[in-house]
Amino acid sequence: MINKKVANVREALHDLEDNMTIMLGGFGLCGIPENSIAELVSKNVKGLTCISNNAGVDDFGLGLLLQKHQIKKMISSYVGENAEFERQMLSGELEVELTPQGTLAEKCRAAQVGIPAFYTPAGYGTEVAEGKEVRVFNGKPHILENAFDADFAIVKAWKGDEAGNLIFKGTARNFNACMAGAARITIAEVEELVPAGELDPNQIHIPGIFVKRIFQGEKYEKRIEQKTVRQKN
């Protein structure tokens, strides 16, 4: 069994360079690869095209990369929690490609399983469909969407083993699961890393064949994007 373990985040991302296209798992601030994002900030790589459901918040997640103008283009579904993102988009500093959420997930999954393109009715009749092939299935127009073509997929899991098998916890499974294996190199950071063979095969969400490198992260903040609590009576 191939050992995918690397010593730390620096080793995991050593060959990620300027102007690459990277997928980043997570939904809001849930299940984001915190250690890897911090390393990208530290490496000061520029001109990145980032594929992520959203762009973090102003002072956390991908918002940290936006602060340093390291992102050239965002491909996202929802971007409403980040004032700096809004400013850069409206000023023309940041190229933005908004994609229906289901389409975004399927473009990841298609890349993961080797499907080059697929038809979907989502987005037909809107700006999303401009310039794309349209075919009619069962009387309903569908647009052709290409699978993503990314250099790196960076995902975060609750637990993994040294062979790269991953288990996600709760809603942190989100986009992490469909992004794993959807790029040329998949890097997984995990809260707990165990020797190969220790995970229950019936509990594994992503098999190690999809993962190139894995490391144990540290000091996770796991911030809550919007915290709402009821007042005490």
Automatic annotation (TrEMBL):
Gene3D superfamilies: Glutaconate Coenzyme A-transferase. Pfam families: CoA_trans. The keyword Cell membrane does not apply. GO terms for molecular function: CoA-transferase activity. InterPro entries: 3-oxoacid_CoA-transf_A (IPR012792), CoA_trans_fam_I (IPR004165), CoA_transf_BS (IPR004163), NagB/RpiA_transferase-like (IPR037171). The keyword Secreted does not apply. Keywords: Transferase. Belongs to the 3-oxoacid CoA-transferase subunit A family. This is 3-oxoacid CoA-transferase subunit A. It comes from Myroides indicus.
